[in-house]
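Hey, quick one: can you model this chain's 3D structure?
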Amino acid sequence: MDIKIQSIHFDATEKLQAFIGKKLEKVSKASDDVRKADVVLKVEKPETTKNKHTSMKLSVKGGDLFVEKTCDTFEEGVDLCIDSLLRQVEKYKEKQKSK
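Sure thing. Here's the predicted structure for all 99 residues.
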């Protein structure tokens, strides 16, 4: 799976990028149809709480799966996005089986 990480208004650390890659491996193991992942990390209004915006888009055969979350930390946002994407992948696999 091809992973593209884009950070807006800050530079993502190697540790954060490795964390995202490790979490996305779970999704790629859940389905072989996942081709690529686009991750956008954005800091909105640095002086406020819950200012870390995380969005992920997975390209799968026949469409895209998308999720976005806003949290206090990027790690928390990535965890929530991955949980949501895993549910979406399960639904996607069920739809593919019924066809």
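One thing worth noting: The domain at 2-98 is CATH 3.30.160.100 (Double Stranded RNA Binding Domain).
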